[in-house]
Amino acid sequence: MNRSSLHAAGLLAAVSVAALLVLPPRLAAQQTSGPDVWAANCGSCHRIRALNAYSASQWNSIATHMGLVARLTAAETRAVREFLVSSARAREAAETARQLAPNLAGVPGTATMGGAQGAAAMSAQSGSAGPVTGRDIYRANCAACHGPEGRGNGPAAAALNPRPTAFTNAAQRQTTTDSAVGDVIQHGRRGMPAFGRTLTHAQVDSLIAHLKTFRR
Amino acid sequence: MRKMVMWTAIALSGIAAPPLLAQGLIVSGYASEELEVSLTKPRANTFDAQNFNLIFLGQLGGDVFAAAEIEYEHGGEEIAFEYGYLAFTRWPFANIVAGKFLVPFGRFNADLHPAWINRVPGRPLPNDAILPVGYGDVGVMVRGAAAAGAAGRFTYDVWGVNGLAGDPGAGIRGMRDNVVDVDNKIALGARLGFVAALGFDAGASLYNGVYCDSACSGSENLNLRILGLDASYRRGPLEVRGEWMSAQQDTAATGDVTKSGLYVQGSYAIMPTVEPAVRFSQVSFPGVADDRRRISLGLSLYPSDAAAVRIFYNINKHFGSGVTDPKDDSIIVQFTVGF
């Protein structure tokens, strides 16, 4: 490695960096899915942390940290931040609703609304207009862990303990109700994120219907 | 005095932590304890409280992010700030990092060296003698990434730091901690990489700096140049990674010294809680007769996502002209947590 090759390498590095700095903005608008970015990058060095391990504001800090150290693009950092923070907010909202439920019992119009339903109602109002078919919703939010065919073998599965649920499981088919599945989707469970703030009621229903297709 | 300041800082952090946690401050870190059973005769066994390191991360206002790590290693033998930096993250293609940071030459030094992350106990041989882990340095870095369509992304890191510094021909490991630059020469480095969507990533790194100036050598500035290549592949439970690096070190009297080495490491999670792994690493010092090779073979057990028990057998080989191999194989049992 002589000095001329060293200078050439340095020049190449400088040109590359300069090119990156002046790249057209459309390259920053990369199409990414938060769960996919999370599954592909956050488990590439260490084991993936449960999504209920941190608060929304802490996930916000972690998203910046991971964007830096994993060298994510701006779009990837934004996508994984939205996924992690919105999931934590949904979980926090559900928890708040559960805590407030006893106090709301006497308030007109809320008598029949339990904590979970209250949270779901809150979350449905804030749900974003995303993919409309259950299949699209599944691909965007679930496939990273549960696998493209619902076998519990997505890219992130190897780093998760316990493993993600396999929707093809016959025993699970016998014992799980739509209501129970919907509750897990909206409020999360153990390491699984809560999607109550990102999916509307209609989207959750579409997703549940799509999950049943894995059982055939 | 140093310990008192450190413990005062930790105590104050504890007091300030609750309100700051609500603001998004993360207090995390990692710790590891190790039992090494040396199979040389006479047999020597030792526990090592390798580290109890606290990491503080926080998103501040104005696109500013702060990170710091306090290391408390080998039962208190080493207490220091491994890194402490501020990062400005407003621009999509360029993040500015200033302070003391882990130099991102290759992947192991900056990303993989904590015991709870690294799937094999201990550092690979080239990361002991050529690009010494953990190498944190004071300076400025620009890093970022740009999408390459559906194929993945290009990444870059460019840094200017005080650099490694030491006596002519000295071991590189002892050249760290040049906190106030003794040679008044900024060292430069860069890593260019590509992360493929299919689980493959690769990079090339370069470091160049004066490690001993004319006042130090008594004659001319002595340079240290290190070139490195790294690659990894990860798909489901399988991970394979490796790095190669070569250092060319000027010496005043005997000409250049070249030091080179590599490691290759593979792991496969046969179930979520059990992951066998193997690592081969080697360093060569032509003319010095201190070549070494190590094969580490064992498995990790994961009682939780944050903890690992690693049981490994190290086969060590020393070779080169006139070298007698001391037959110093060892067994490592390590307990490590990331919290």
Average pLDDT for all residues of chain A = 73
The overall pLDDT of chain B, averaged over residues, is 89
Oligomer: heterodimer
| Helix/strand structural class of chain A | mainly alpha
Overall, the morphology of chain B is globular
Work out the radius of gyration of chain A.
21 Å
Catalogue the unreliable spans of chain B: none
Detail the poorly predicted runs of chain A.
Answer: 25-29, 109-129
Major β-sheet annotation of chain B: 16 strands, antiparallel, barrel
Secondary-structure element string of chain A? HHHHHHHHHH
Q: State which percent range the strand residues of chain B make up.
A: over 45%
Structural class of chain B: mainly beta
Beta strand count of chain A: 0
Instruction: Give helix % range of chain A.
Output: 55-70%
Write the layout of secondary structure elements.
The complex is a heterodimer of chains A (216) and B (339).
Chain A (H helix, E strand, L loop, with lengths): L2 H19 L12 H8 L14 H14 L4 H31 L10 H12 L7 H8 L1 H4 L23 H6 L2 H10 L13 H13 L3
Helix pairs in contact in A: 2-4, 3-4, 4-5, 6-10
Chain B lengths: L1 H21 L3 E13 L5 E16 L4 E10 L4 E11 L6 E8 L5 H5 L13 H4 L6 E12 L4 E10 L25 E10 L3 E13 L1 H4 L4 E14 L2 E12 L7 E12 L5 E11 L6 E14 L2 E13 L10 E9 L1
Antiparallel strand pairs in B: 1-2, 1-16, 2-3, 3-4, 4-5, 5-6, 6-7, 7-8, 8-9, 9-10, 10-11, 11-12, 12-13, 13-14, 14-15, 15-16
